[in-house]
């Protein structure tokens, strides 16, 4: 599973990039707004840090405006993936932009039927939101499982990006279900490293070694 970071924060991106395990970045208008810089500027800076797919989302909601905005965003850097909301105009814009060779990520997918439409439009990525479905009291991971099955049944090439992953368990379940990509906030990625037995084991190894050879 490819791992993307779900943040527009440059410090978080630099820290995680150093670990060598980040394959891309997803942003959305809320995450860009949090950093206080215009999207073109922020996304260009992100492209300088991470060499991988970088999703940049349009804020237009009408077909022609979405296409224009998408074309403009795609010119920022070769790694830009144009992110479009899963509304009628967004799916239509996806079909057109993909036809022009511009890769798209159709976001805000909450049911498998929506995901079927995205695959039929030829999107590069679909983004189903696991955590937000859980927030409604339902089981978000079922959507990932359903999409994996449906896309496999018909050989759709669209990659399933499990989004809104908020815990290590979410990440593990998404990987087990066969999501192509998982996008994680920095905090979730950081917590994937942790296990009390790893810390305890390392502590014991170092103490045993030091008893015989001393501290280096
Ligand atoms: C994905 O592209 C979204 O930016 C993100 O995963 C949403 O996560 P949230 O529901 O935790 O805000």
Quick overview of this protein structure:
With 216 residues, the protein is α/β, with parallel strands linked by helices. The chain has 11 helices and 8 strands. It has one domain: TIM Barrel, CATH 3.20.20.70.
Describe, in plain words, how this protein is organized in 3D:
Helix 1 packs parallel to helix 3 (39-49) and helix 4 (63-74) crosses helix 5. The protein has an eight-stranded parallel barrel with strand order 1-2-3-4-5-6-7-8, surrounded by seven helices. Helix content is 54%, strand content 17%. It has eleven helices and eight strands. The two termini are 38 Å apart. It is α/β, with parallel strands linked by helices. Bound molecules: erythose-4-phosphate. Erythose-4-phosphate binds next to helix 7.
């Amino acid at each position: 599973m490819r791992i993307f970071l779900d943040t527009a924060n440059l410090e978080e991106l630099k820290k995680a990039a150093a670990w060598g395990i980040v394959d891309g970045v997803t942003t959305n208008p809320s995450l860009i707004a949090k950093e206080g810089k215009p999207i073109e500027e922020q996304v260009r800076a992100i492209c300088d840090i991470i060499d991988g797919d970088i999703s940049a989302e349009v804020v237009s909601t009408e077909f022609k405006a979405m296409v224009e905005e998408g074309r403009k965003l795609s010119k920022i850097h070769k790694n830009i993936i144009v992110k479009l909301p899963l509304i009628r105009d967004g799916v239509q814009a996806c079909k057109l932009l993909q036809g022009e060779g511009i890769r798209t990520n159709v976001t805000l997918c909450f049911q498998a039927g929506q995901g079927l439409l995205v695959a039929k439009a030829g999107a590069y990525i679909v983004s189903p939101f696991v955590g937000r479905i859980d927030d409604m009291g339902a089981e978000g991971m079922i959507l990932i499982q359903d999409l994996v099955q449906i896309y496999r049944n018909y050989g759709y090439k669209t990659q399933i990006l499990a989004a809104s992953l908020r815990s290590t368990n979410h990440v593990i379940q998404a990987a087990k279900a066969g999501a192509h990509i998982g996008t994680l906030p920095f905090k979730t990625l950081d917590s994937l490293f942790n296990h009390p037995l790893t810390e305890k084991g390392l502590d014991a190894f170092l103490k045993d070694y030091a008893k015989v050879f001393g501290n280096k």
